[in-house]
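Supplementary notes for students who missed Thursday's class. We covered one full example, reproduced here. Read the sequence, then the structure, then the short commentary at the end.
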Amino acid sequence: MAKAKEKQTKAEQEQEANVSELDIKDDQTEETPAVEEESSTSPADNPDGAASETPVATPKKKFNLKQWVRVHKWATAGIVAAVLVVAALGVWFTDAKFAVLNLFGKSSLELLITDDKTNQPVPNAKVTVDSQSAQSAKDGKVTITNIHYGNDDVTVEKLA
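Structure (token representation):
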């Protein structure tokens, strides 16, 4: 009978020890930051039928840009170089598109020349665009042909 009592008290002591361990683990998980649990396999998933591992808690990491740049120096340099190339091409293509358009044709420009004060048409005004010039008619209209695509200055002179 004494052995049975001794076995019973040992079992009770082990149970109390397991309960106190769970209490300690619960207290620790409440104080730790948010964690992600890795998935574990269930006994049904395990072909051996062995017990599965318990989930392991790992702390979540925040993204740190400075640290990423330090670790990935060459990638950062490549990204910066790519951005600069795209910006340069954007400026170059603005001028290049006009050069390509000028290979296939020229443009013409029709203007109506009016006086600022009276808002009336100005006859006999000399209009110059891209080294092409023309004189306005009595109604103030002028047409200049064979001018290049792109940005050019327009000058208007009132003739006497």
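Commentary. The chain has three helices and seven strands. The longest strand covers residues 141-147. If anything here is unclear, bring it to office hours.
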